[in-house]
Design goal:
This protein has about 575 residues and is of the alpha+beta class. A five-stranded mixed β-sheet has the order 8-9-10-1-11, with no helix packed on it. Strands 12, 13, 14, 17 and 18 form a five-stranded antiparallel β-sheet that branches. Strands 4-5-7-6 form a four-stranded antiparallel β-sheet, covered by helices on one side. It comes from Streptomyces flavotricini.
């Protein structure tokens, strides 16, 4: 929630794509038949220990170093090896959005103004070699994440910790370390922050908080065999995470870990596979694939259509809702989007039914009229300031255009990506183009290769006036949604800028700071929702839809748990026959 440095913001940009790939973020309400989070075809029988779980993925589990991973809630595969001070609650539904203790005895004890957070370690914590885990190891693990050669992790500590802005890591500090991380003894650790941060327990779930024994640190080679604090240890890491093999860490004590079930004896992660191949292998479930899952590959519209006629396959599909929003962004610095009535007209003209069809249909996307996702954890407050119904209201749009001085309509350009992602892609752009045409708005489509598209929409000097965009949160709260997009102090003029509207409203900035002070997360949620509703009145964006995840599992997979934090199957809970 603090102002991020230019480097940090570039890192955050990478995180959005990583979160999409791994599903390491929040999800929403389940379908009526999926309230338990477990699919009917994989829920039969009690889970049991033993066997090998196969993971079939498109993207490799690269940079398998806790300093370099950008995860939420500890991640999925990483959380099997790296324990952190806190973690996500490994339960279905809304209960899964809660922060719970992991290595620590509680979720943290703040001082009066939440500028200091103190944690105490549980008894009996050890590494895979049996040596005890200490708070000095956690301090060192955090400090090494500041080293340039280990960059890539979440940026928050660099901005939040006192002295973090200029710290370069333990390889260059001559053994001094960060003074803002105090370890008075082997069980206690205190963090001193630059400003109040009531959501610090969420950040303490990220892998930078995993302990690293200094004597075992091998720098950039540490990822090849990181020292495990979790239920599994790395026995093979080939081609930078393309083939990862995990086996039981016999020194892990389940009495200290209420969250991870760790049923399989072995986990075999195979990556670099084509999405269609992954789904075909899971569908067929031959041999080892019967006990297989994916942590990054969704089913597409065509595959869902085929599965819909097969009850057995349908019962093996897990449904999750990512804490994510796809939207149309306006840059009010560019005419005619400097006119609020033009932005309102476009808001009324949008046909969300056609947009959702372009996004893959109602099974893969749900309509949005709020910027915040429709989950309580984010502080969602229902509103629809420009009610257009399911098919848009072109008559109301034309009325507003006339008031704006465009009685004969107008012509504008919509910038989008050429990537076939069904979010910022040509299909969605075309649906927007057709809806606006009914309101007398001629839309020229500007399609850019994905990297060029991202560079342009995040460059404050060249931001288009009108473009497709998307945003996901690093943890289930309104803060990581609203602050990067609408806090005027986070506008970056010489780097990656996410505040597309360049909104710099002192009242909005002040409210963000006030909410950040709250350690009562329920109260903070209400305030985030109210702020979302207030900002929404300005029509600075048009929320379009929230994506839905549909992922298949092998026929012998049991205990499928899908929480409202991750939106996808939690690998730490899975059992195989």
């Amino acid at each position: 929630m603090l102002r991020q440095s230019q480097t940090s913001r570039r890192v955050a940009a990478v995180a959005v794509s990583l979160v999409l790939a791994g599903g390491a973020a929040a999800c929403g309400p389940k379908d009526a038949a999926d309230q338990s989070g477990a699919t009917s075809g994989s829920a039969g029988g009690a889970p049991r220990k033993g066997g090998t779980l196969t993971v079939l993925n498109s993207e490799p589990q690269s940079d398998f170093d806790p300093a370099r991973l950008y995860t939420s809630g500890g991640g999925n595969v990483p959380s099997l090896v790296f324990r952190t001070l806190t973690t996500r609650n490994r339960e279905d539904g809304a209960a899964g959005t809660k922060v719970v203790p992991d290595l620590a005895t509680d979720t943290g004890r703040p001082n009066a103004d939440a500028t200091e957070w103190t944690y105490t370690l549980k008894d009996g914590l050890t590494y895979e070699d049996g040596t005890p885990i200490t708070t000095a190891d956690i301090k060192y693990g955090i400090e090494r994440s500041f080293a340039a050669e280990l960059s890539g992790g979440a940026p928050y500590l660099r901005d939040w910790l006192v002295g973090g802005e200029g710290y370069e890591g333990p390889y260059k500090d001559g053994g001094k370390g960060l003074d803002s991380i105090l370890v008075p003894d082997a069980k206690t650790i205190t963090f001193k922050l630059r400003k109040p941060e009531g959501e610090f327990p969420f950040v303490a779930t990220q892998t930078q908080f995993a302990p690293v024994p200094k004597a075992k640190d091998t720098g950039v080679k540490y990822e090849e065999h990181p020292v495990s604090s979790g239920p599994y240890k790395v026995v093979k890491n080939e081609n930078d995470g393309e083939h990862l093999t995990l086996e039981r860490n016999e020194k892990w004590d389940p009495k200290t870990d209420e969250e991870r079930k760790a049923y399989p004896d072995r986990i075999d992660v195979r990556s670099g596979l084509d999405a269609a191949v992954i789904n075909q292998r899971l569908s067929t479930s031959s041999g080892a694939d019967a006990a297989a899952i994916t942590t990054d590959t969704n089913l597409g519209p065509a595959e869902l259509a085929q599965i819909g006629s097969n009850k057995e396959l349908e019962g093996r599909v897990g449904t999750g809702h990512f804490g994510y929003v796809n939207y149309l962004a306006f840059n009010p610095k560019v005419a005619p989007f400097d006119n609020p009535k033009v932005r309102q007209a476009i808001s009324y003209a949008i046909n969300r039914t056609s947009v959702i069809n372009a996004a893959g249909g109602s099974a893969l996307a749900e309509p949005a009229t709020t910027f915040l996702p429709e989950q309580k954890a984010f502080g969602h407050t229902p509103y629809d300031h420009f009610p257009a119904g399911k098919a848009g209201d072109p008559a109301k749009a034309k009325e507003l255009l006339k008031e704006a001085g465009f009685p004969d309509g107008l012509s504008i350009t919509l910038t989008h990506s050429t990537a076939q992602n069904r979010q910022t892609s040509p299909e969605v752009a075309t649906a927007v183009q057709q809806a606006l045409a009914a309101a007398g708005i001629t839309v020229k489509l500007e399609g850019l290769e994905n990297n060029a598209f991202n560079e342009k929409r995040w460059d404050v000097k060249n931001t288009p006036g009108f473009f497709l965009s998307r945003w996901g949160a690093d943890w289930p709260s309104g803060g990581p949604f609203l602050a990067p997009i609408f806090d005027g102090r986070q506008i970056v003029t010489n780097g990656t800028n996410y505040n597309h509207a360049q909104l710099n409203d002192p009242a909005v900035n002040a409210e963000i700071d006030e909410i950040a002070k709250l350690t009562d997360l329920a109260e903070a949620g209400k305030r985030w929702g109210a702020l979302d509703k207030k900002i929404g009145e300005q029509a600075l964006d048009v929320p379009l839809f929230h994506p839905v995840y549909k992922r298949l599992v092998g026929k012998d997979v049991k205990n499928v748990v899908i929480s409202d934090w991750t939106g996808v199957l939690d690998i730490s809970q899975v059992s195989v026959k």
